[in-house]
Amino acid sequence: MKGILKLPQNRTDGVRGMACILIVLHHFCANLMGIGYSNFLIDLIGLRGGVTGVTVFFFLSGWGLSESQLRHHYDAWTFAKKRLIRVFIPLVFTNLIYYPFVLWSHGRSFNLTDFILNFLNIHPIDGVTWYCNVLILFYALFYISFLFKKKGHIAICITILTVLYAIYCTYTNPDSPFKVYSLIGFPMGVIFSLYKNQISNKFFIASNCSVLPVLLILSILLPNYSNLFIANLYSWAVILALVVLITKFSLRSSTFLFLGKYSYEIYLLHFKALVILSVFGLALWYPLVFIGIIIPLSIIVNKLLAKIY
Question: How far apart are CA 130 and CA 297, in angstroms?
C-alpha cells in the first residue's frame, strides 16, 4: 500500500544525528546569548533549538519502541534489559566522570548521600540529564500502556499518562516548565506507529502546507514560550515537519548517520563539557572541543559500555 506511513531506520538515524547537532548548537548559542552575543540566528537557535531537538528525540523513541514491541512482544524483564539499561548505564557512567568537577566547582565536600543522588541522577547532575529521567519514565508508561491489546486503548492510555505527567511538571515546577514543551513527541511517536497503516503520507504534506506556517509565525511572535499552548503547537509543527522530512527526502548523509549512532553519548557529554569550559572562561572554544574531544569520547563510552549490554 503506497500511502502507508514509513519511517525507515536508515533515515531516522540521520535525523537523530541532525537533532543531536541542533541540541548542541542550542546550548552553545544560549551560552553566547548569556555573555552578550546576539543576532537573529543565535537567538533563534538559543531559544528554539533545544525544544526542537528533544521533541525529535522523544518522537523517534516513541516510534521505535512501538515498532519493536509490535514485532516482538517483549515481556517486562526483556523490555527493561533491552531499553532501560541502555539509557541508565551511560547516564550513571558519565555522571560518575563528571561528579568530581561538580564537587570542585561548587566548593562541596564529598557526601555519600549527595553522591548517590547525583550519581543515580535522582537529583539531575546538570541541565540536560532531566531528559534521561523522563525517558526512563516514558519507557515505564509505554510498557504499562502496551498491556492493553487494542490499539485505541494503548493510544488513549499513553496520551492520558503523558498529559498527567505534564500537569504534574507544570504545577510542581512552574518557574521552569520547559520539560512539557517537548513531551508531546513521545505519545505522538507511539500513536503514529500504531496507526501507520491508516495514515497517508499525503496527510502530513497537507498539514504542513496549511498548519506549519501559522505555527512558526506564532512561535516567532512568542519567543519566550509565554503561552504553553503555543509552545506545544510548535512541537506539533516540528513533528509534522519531521515526518515529511523523513518520508520525502533521502537523509543518508554519512556524517549525520555517524552522529546519530552516538547521539545519546554526545547528548550526555556535550553540556558537561560546555559547563567546564564556561567555568574557565573558555566557552568560545567549545566548537573545537566538541569536534576534538566530545565526539571521540562519546565513541569510546559507547564502545566500552556496549560490552555490558
Answer: 21
pLDDT in tens, 79-127: 988 888 899 999 999 999 999 999 998 888 999 999 999 999 999 999 8
**Closest by CA position to 136, among listed 151, 149, 120:** 120
List the grid coordinates of 49.
533549538
The whole-angstrom separation of Cα 265 and Cα 203 is 35
Place of cell 541541565: 127
User: What digits encode the pLDDT tens for the residues 156-176?
Assistant: 999 889 888 888 887 777 656
Helix (DSSP H) and strand (DSSP E) numbers for the chain = 15, 0
8 A C-beta contact, residue 119 and residue 95: yes
Q: Which of 154, 183, 153 is nearest to 168 (CA)?
A: 183
- Say what the alpha-carbon torsion angle 8, 11, 17, 21 is, to the nearest 10 degrees: -130
Give the list of residues 6+ apart from residue 12 with CB closer than 8 angstroms, or none.
Answer: 60, 63, 64, 246, 260
Residues 7 and 204 sit within 8 Å (Cβ to Cβ): no
Query: In sequence order, what DSSP letters do the residues of 182-245 get, joined into one string?
Result: HTTHHHHHHHHHHTTTT-BHHHHHHHHHHHHHHHHHHHHHSTT--SHHHHHHHHHHHHHHHHHH
Separation between Cα atoms, residue 173 and residue 180, nearest integer Å:
11
User: What pLDDT does residue 139 have?
Assistant: 95
Residues 253-272 pLDDT 10s: 788 889 999 999 999 999 99
Q: Is 177 exposed, middle or buried, given 0-12, 13-18 or 19+ CB atoms closer than 10 A?
A: middle
Q: DSSP 3-state assignment of 3?
A: coil
pLDDT, residue 174, reads 61
CA distances (Å), origin 134, targets 128, 129, 228, 288: 11, 9, 19, 30
What is the residue type of 158? I
